[in-house]
Design goal:
single chain, 396 residues, alpha/beta, Aspartate Aminotransferase, domain 1, Aspartate Aminotransferase, domain 2, 2 domains, seven-stranded mixed β-sheet, three-stranded antiparallel β-sheet, 12 helices, 15% strand, binds 4'-deoxy-4'-aminopyridoxal-5'-phosphate
């Protein structure tokens, strides 16, 4: 087994190590401000102050007001709150989601069926981009809610969220986006986007696990119902005792993201960072390995994710799971597809949607980089991937 010291962690899209500043702050806050922020004694008031300062920092990162920030347990819960919370206030209609959504959004959308909603899937092309020819059909009545994943966690493709947001706004359709994989790549101005809400998890940007956000446009604050009753915390939208330390950790992690995403019309531009440069360099080295087919959009993509389908030299599919296991013996930690679905035997809906050949559905590899990687031995990684494929397939 490789010791933790020798690990090359290339699985940022699954989760990230805490930023060192977050870890020390988590300990400090948990030691000193552990009281329930709803308690009215002095210690409770101090905890509330930490919580509300964190909310203020988070709000500033996206140029919204603190009343628009709902702190949740993570993106899964945030997307459920947005989709089910808004649907609750409306007469049943149609919800449109892309065919490459994360399972959390798929589950939230399909849960509406029991209340009489229709679910429609927005087809994508072979690169995973929604088909804009379907826009008029899908954004016409009875559509009332649209939810699109902004940066796809398995194949990296970025959807035209700014454009679709505007189109939905014109038609009075609530538009939610799952921004979970985007934020580590840069902060953005919520108001530039014409979106109803977005969800995210702190652990994807080096914050703590088990905490996330739903940011809601002002005009929807009154048009969303809580999905769980209780103490009425989080502006009455999300009951449950809040954690000042986790909220503070999330705010500190956001403050460590040094770059902004610029959005002009339909275009999204990421700043160059050490991570994006390393990803490009690694991608270029990997392109020399015969048998790797790059998937996802070639340009409109998350700049820290490389997704490939792997086959042997003689074109036989290589099991992504075996390759992940083999690479981990050499300290290289990656994923096959997404971590949340790679431990189930369900067919991969994302790869099916981009029309990957049936026989290759189990052969994907996802390499995702994060800001803790300041330098990498790209030759070692490339050589180990090459050798591992050879080793697994030498009997083929
Ligand atoms: N959406 C996307 C795009 C994700 O990658 C993930 C995590 N894999 C989630 C939602 C769910 O995040 P969490 O498990 O933290 O709720």
């Amino acid at each position: 087994m490789v010791s933790a010291k020798n690990i090359i962690y290339l699985d940022a899209a699954s989760t990230c190590p805490l930023h060192p500043k977050v870890l020390s702050e988590l300990i400090r806050i948990e030691k000193n401000y552990w009281a329930n922020p709803s308690s009215i004694h002095n210690l409770g008031i101090q905890s509330l102050d930490v919580l509300e300062r964190s909310r203020f920092t988070i709000a500033n990162c996206f140029n919204v007001s603190p009343s628009q920030v709902v702190i949740t347990s993570g993106a899964t819960e945030s997307s459920h709150l947005a989709i089910r919370g808004v649907a609750n206030k409306l007469k049943p209609g149609r919800i449109v989601i892309s065919s490459v959504e994360h399972p959390s959004v798929i589950a939230a959308a399909f849960s509406l069926q029991q209340n009489g909603w229709e679910v429609a899937k927005w087809d994508v092309d072979n690169h995973g981009l929604i088909d804009l020819n379907l826009l008029d059909e899908l954004l016409s009545p009875p559509t009332k809610i649209v939810s699109l994943i902004w940066g796809q966690n398995e194949i990296g493709t970025i959807q035209p969220v700014s454009f679709i947001g505007k189109e939905c706004k014109k038609r009075n359709i609530f538009f939610h986006t799952d921004a979970t994989q985007i934020i580590s790549q840069g902060l953005f101005d919520f108001n530039q986007l014409s979106i109803g809400s977005f969800s995210a998890s702190a652990h994807k940007f080096r914050g703590p696990k088990g905490i996330g956000i739903l940011i809601i446009a002002r005009e929807y604050l009154e048009l969303i119902d809580p999905i769980q009753g209780g103490g009425g915390q989080e502006h009455g939208l999300r009951s449950g005792t809040q954690s000042p330390s986790l909220a503070h950790g999330m705010a500190i992690a956001l403050k460590q993201i040094p770059v902004h995403i610029s959005i002009n019309n339909q275009e999204i531009n990421f700043s160059h960072t050490r991570t994006t440069i390393l990803t490009k360099e690694l991608s270029s080295k990997l392109s020399n390995i015969k048998g790797l087919e790059f998937i996802g959009h070639p340009f409109t993509r998350l700049p820290n994710i490389i997704s490939v389908l792997v086959s042997s030299r003689n074109n036989i599919p290589v099991s992504g799971r075996s390759l992940v296991r083999e690479l981990s013996n050499y300290g290289i930690l990656v994923s096959s597809g997404s971590a949340c679905s790679s431990n189930t035997s369900k067919p991969n809906n994302v790869l099916e949607s981009i029309k990957v050949d049936n026989k290759m559905l189990g052969s994907s590899l996802r390499i995702s980089l994060g800001s803790w990687l300041t330098e990498l031995d790209l030759n070692y990684i490339t050589m180990t991937i090459f050798n591992s494929i050879e080793k697994i397939t030498h009997n083929y």
